[in-house]
Amino acid sequence: MNDTPRDTPPPAVSPPGERRRLESIQAGTDAFTTGIIDGLGLPDDAACLELGAGAGSVARWLAAHRPRGRVTAVDIDVRHLDPGGPHRLDVVRADITDESFAPGRFDLVHARFVLCHLPSRDALVARAARWLRPGGWLVVTDPYQLPADTSPFPVVRRLMEAYRQGCARAGTDLTWARSLPALLAGAGLSPVEFAGRPACMGNGDKDRWRVLVEQAAPALLTVPGFTPADLDAFRAHLADPAFVDIPQITLAAWARRPPAA
How far apart are CA 135 and CA 43, in angstroms? Predict the structure, then answer.
């Protein structure tokens, strides 16, 4: 397996609070993710590839639950990836969009909150499908943002519209996840399955958005129509136990490369 591109990218510099952001994502979605993977029936010796592994919770879970397997965790920034423990986990710093990144065949390829940020996202789904062994599974999870103007809270309408615009400036498509089932089918994988989990904003200590918004605040405040007063109003909402909203749906889609005849 060729683990690294010919021109390995320089180490990425994580913005302040990146670790907390990654941990917030893990806390809110790991149970959803591992529940899906658990249902696939992977063998104990499965070879697994985790794309955009972040802080590594899913990669470590895979390594712990596949005692005879091997997990490869790939990210362009591996500073938050600690292999930890005696598990069979390889950490690789690489750019998955580089054409020279050509891993071997896997029983599982998993990507969460990664592909929607990449301009070559459609092509990467097709490439990841080709990295599977016969009978192997591709699982992709990304956010689907609900229309901002449907929130019952005016400040959340302005916040989520600014969030959408800021993400779009950076090349992120927050509605792309809807195309995942069709992309998996188009890559020759079947049967295609999918599931969604509502994201929680507010609702006391169940909130998963404070950390995300605080890290994104400098960019949000450059979007016309979103002001420091809006940011303060959002913070005040979070302190109100009656405040709860659903800004996004986490969508997961998965499908299998046909087993060998």
Answer: 11
Cα 227 to the center of its chain, rounded Å: 28
In a domain, 252, yes or no: yes
User: Prior bond to 191 cis, omega within 30?
Assistant: yes
Both structure tokens of 205: 């200590």
Per-residue HEC secondary structure of the chain comes to CECCCCCCCCCCCCCCCHHHHHHHHHHHHHHHHHHHHHCCCCCCCCEEEEECCCCCHHHHHHHHHCCCCEEEEEECCCCCCCCCCCCCEEEEECCCCCCCCECCCEEEEEEECCHHHCCCHHHHHHHHHHCEEEEEEEEEEEEEECCHHHCCCHHHHHHHHHHHHHHHHCCCCCCHHHHHHHHHHHCCCCCCEEEEEECCEECHHHCCCHHHHHHHHHHHCCCCCCCHHHHHHHHHHHCCCCCEECCEEEEEEEEECCCCC
Lowest mean pLDDT among 16-25, 105-114, 127-136: 16-25
User: What is the spatial distance between Cα 58 and Cα 65, in angstroms, rounded to a whole number?
Assistant: 10
Q: What is the pLDDT of residues 20-29, one digit of tens each?
A: 666 777 777 8
Question: Which burial class, exposed, middle or buried, applies to 31 when counting CB atoms under 10 A from its CB (0-12, 13-18, 19+)?
Answer: exposed
The range of the structural domain enclosing residue 120 comes to 18-146+173-200+246-256
Tens digits of residue pLDDT in 45-85:
999 999 988 878 899 899 888 888 999 999 988 877 765 55
Instruction: CATH number of the domain at 58, please.
Output: 3.40.50.150
Q: What is the pLDDT of residues 221-252, one digit of tens each?
A: 999 999 999 999 999 999 999 999 999 999 99
pTM, two decimal places: 0.88
